[in-house]
Amino acid sequence: MLICFSCFFCKKHFNLALSIQVHPENEEWTCFEQTASLDIKSFFGFENAAEKLAMKQYANSIKKGKEIIEYYLKELEDEGVTHVPRWSPPQAPPPTARLQLPLTSAPANAIPVPTAKETPSASPTDLPAGSPDDKLDADYIRRYLGDLTPLQESCLIRLRQWLQETHKGKIPKDQHVLRFLRARDFNLEKAREILCQSLTWRKQHQVDFLLDSWERPQLLHDYYTGGWHHHDRDGRPLYILRLGQMDTKGLVRALGEESLLRQVLSINEEGLRRCEENTRVFGRPISCWTCLVDLEGLNMRHLWRPGVKALLRIIEVVEANYPETLGCLLILRAPRVFPVLWTLVSPFIDENTRKKFLVYAANDYQGPGGLVDYIDREVIPDFLGGDCLCEIPEGGMVPKSLYRTAETLESEELRLWTDTIYKTASVFKGAPHELLIEISEPSSVITWDFDVCKGDVIFNIYHSRRAPQPPKRDVQGAHGSIVSPATNNMQLIDRSWILGQDYSMVETALTCKEGESVQGSHVTRWPGFYILQWRFHCSPACSTSSLPRVDDVLASLQVSSHKCKVMFYTEVLGSKDFRGSMTSLESSHSGFSQLSAATTTSSQSQSSSTVSR
């Protein structure tokens, strides 16, 4: 249904489109969609104010409509209605009876309430994320995801569908996607934003291979007082950290922040693995773990400023990439100095996470409502008064002979944030980012892998026999604005160059949307200089109308519309090694999509390329 109206005096046009259809992945569901566009050309000088007011009113109307739908769904549940038959067109009477039987009116349309189905349960391996045929049936939800309302399940399906379209080959499991939705109270846009950023981070730093590739330094084996220990009463994996017995200052001085950060990331990766294992063992969804922190021995030494700073940076990374993984945090034997540490750390912890903290002073954990309410007596560690022997190291002071010099610590940066095979670049309107690759032998292969982190870009490849001028950082952004010198934006193609004379295009331009991951290769024909270019792409406001959409106008008010960001990796291979390197290339870099081994030959340039999204 399309509703349109216009005002002659104000020269404003409003379009409202409504559609009701069957849900694409669950035919028992009804999907309601609504889009609107507003164009105000003249409103007595108050055009911007009128647009903002209209968008606010439109958002309130959508919110009210959602409340009405939820209200009537709740009434159906209160009345005991668990299923409403789907409406179907009336059956046409047989030809001989058409004159005797009157046509009955169609029953009123209704929203079906999904119920549990008697279907075999499915496991994550049986229903891999990204499969177009998977279904979120009731048994699968109950077995692996937990209780979900219809709206929550719809958000999960829509977010997973978006991942299938933009992140082919590297889609996380439903349980992981659900964590990001819960972290943002099932706000689809906010969850999609932080999930996309986390996937980019995991790919950039190859976190998927951390458990297999990282070897813990011997110092961590000897002096890091933490480890996994059975599970709690709810079946959640239990991690114990004897923070009071750990020489945090000594570990930071001897190892640096990077090793401690990798240690914490490996703990979280192991926690995700144990949650999946316990889900299979206990037959119910387990998506988080319990952490027990013993603070006996905590003193002012633990408040060493560089150590607290390192802790805050670690918390920032964990909060952004492992949301909703902490089920409960039990803090035992908190000393008097603990409130000081809590004051420093708590502002950096999400509010929902802080609600999961339980603090016990002295021996309060031994009484009613204490540790036994969360952990079975037989698995309480011996150092907390239990009978279970715990293999967690007792810690101790790190010898000062193992400390690194203060100069080394000050000059060292966190390589996990800075050193990576991927590079990032900013793309501005009128200022593309360009990368130079020199080819000395023909038939060499240029491969690339890049993610569009922000905005839409156009990707081009050019060839020139002339060497471009040394790369210069672009210090003038769009409309003459000054760009920070730290901004990574390189200009190589001289403004005086003429396309077709000084340089030529060797690939068809590729438009890449925000959130997309693109992998591909180009087999070169000539030696010389190849330039990979990412250019700002200004997408039309609406593909079917010249009128801007409300969503586009709102987005333009919230973020800068003249800047894009890409993260890329490139490599040059010899032609004879190209086919044999496909498998190793994919296994060496986290998140690579499968590259096609076959290349298509162009009859014009005799070059070939493959592109995978």
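The record above closes out task 2.4. Task 2.5 opens with a second protein, given below.
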Amino acid sequence: MAASAVPQPRSSKTEFYTDNKRKEDIRHSNIAAAKSVADAVRTSLGPKGMDKMISTSSGDVIITNDGATILNNMQLLQPAAKMLVELSKSQDAAAGDGTTTVVVIAGALLDSCRLLLTRGIHPTVVSDSLHKAAVKAIDILTAMAVPVELGDRESLVKSASTSLNSKVVSQYSTLLAPLAVDAVTSVVDPEKPEQVDLRDIKIVKKLGGTVDDTQLVKGLVFDKKVSHAAGGPTRMENAKIGVIQFQISPPKTDIEQSIVVSDYSQMDRILKEERSYILGMIKKIKGTGCNVLLIQKSILRDAVTDLSLHYLAKAKILVIKDVERDEIEFITKTLNCLPIANIEHFRAEKLGQADLVEEVSLGDGGKIVKISGIKDMGRTSTVLVRGSNQLVIDEAERSLHDALCVVRCLVNKRFLIAGGGAPEIELSRQLGAWAKVLHGMEGYCIRAFAESLEVIPYTLAENAGLNPIAIVTELRNRHAQGEINAGINVRKGQITNILEENVVQPLLVSTSAITLATECVRMILKIDDIVTVR
């Protein structure tokens, strides 16, 4: 009897248990880190969401409630937390709006997954169930969507206004929303209507005035003055515009070296040669009929010298210098001309034409150069954003970018869906009903997925200062009665038909948020160890 009481060695079981414990710890630490990031941006969701003040390492201050901007400026160390930053960037690239929503949904899903894991459900089962639920969710959202035509400008403006309502500059949504719609529709190519490149819309920021002074310009705008160095013209009608990428200055040697000239006659000869070299270039330019020059900024040597500016002024050629290299493509597309890399290739057929190029004073000390009446203008547009300080201008630019992205989403996928938490609560209801039909662990996991989607209406109500439990309960009740477009009206503080209140968003924003959040959560779930390579 004594011999049988000796405990048997349980080494294999003990090792297996320890191994599992470590894997669970890694998963739980990843979920906790990602969840804390989601909680940080959760308070900035919706029209009544709070703004964040971000102080960067360089001492700059940013005030915003744009999820992508907040997360981009966070200094995160934990790898799983960084995945939520990448998730926000993916949503920004795919849809442009809903960057806060996607992170909040991911955080809620992770919280549900943590509870499922603690109940002993295997991560692979949870992951597969999430995938099935996401596919079903996309079908439900598509069935809820309302088709929209590009000619229906009013619907496009409503959608852009909804995206602007949660921004710092929301009071200017009546100006910025139509402006965003006009900017996008002006660059849509009839041959490829579903492809919109936002690089064809240039946003020029100019300090001074208020956001009310923001305008859409049919032409080109440069945030710089005309070169006044030698008293050249500041206004040119019937302009023939050349975009040059070479320097109108004396040539330099290819290698860094010094030449010492001790003879005065040799010095005169060098200066004479320089003058004749520059004069020869300007005569060639003038001979083509060119009267406006846009000169690309040069790194190796001065793009223009005082002497060349003097001769250009004598030739009555208007000069805009220091044009950035990355602007050249946009400028040439707008002017329908070709950039000229060498004086030998300077020909009249490479020039762009416009009715007027002039320097415009903005009344508060600032000046811009405006090119209008461009002949055969390319499909581009320019937005001049004004603001009383740099913080307001930067936030206006970010908000306008979101509005442009929303209109682009509608061009790509022409369906609208209600906002105000309506799609999320409808998803929660229908997925919950579907989970009851399924058997085993799958149904259990999908029910948890459905419940976690209620975080969006709950957070909207919480941020608006309403009673979230009462609001979400009433919202659930209204959807159960068949009102699929019932949502939270944060202005009135009650449940209304959100489509009638013009709170709409593109279908692509919602479907992209669900798909990307699910992918990210599944990826985090599958991680059972972190290996650090030094």
